[in-house]
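User: Teach me something about this protein's shape.
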Amino acid sequence: MDNTINVNKSVKIVPLCIFELLTPCALAFWICDDGQYVKRGGVTLCTDNFELSEILLLKSVLEDKYKLECTIHNKNPEKGYYRIYISGRSLATLRGLVIEYMHTSMVYKLDK
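Assistant: First, the predicted structure itself:
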């Protein structure tokens, strides 16, 4: 195994103060960038490159701050890629939070 550090590789981290930083506007941008509408209803936030502890922190912010119903799905068990799924039951709440910050070309990520 190669233990060298690749200085050209970016590493994403979730800051511990994410509760304050994750505003409705920031959530809208996150959905526009790394969100996808799920056919059965709901929205998935791609968090593949975060540590599970960071994903759990993000999930707790979405639940506690915005009262969104969320679960974590293991998208790739071999690589440990996890994603946050926001339930279709929370779509009306989510839309109310973020719609004003989203470009009209991205609104499809919140609906059928």
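Now, about its shape. The longest strand covers residues 70-76. The CA atoms of residues 14 and 54 lie 6 Å apart. If you'd like, I can walk through any region in more detail.
User: That's plenty for now, thanks!
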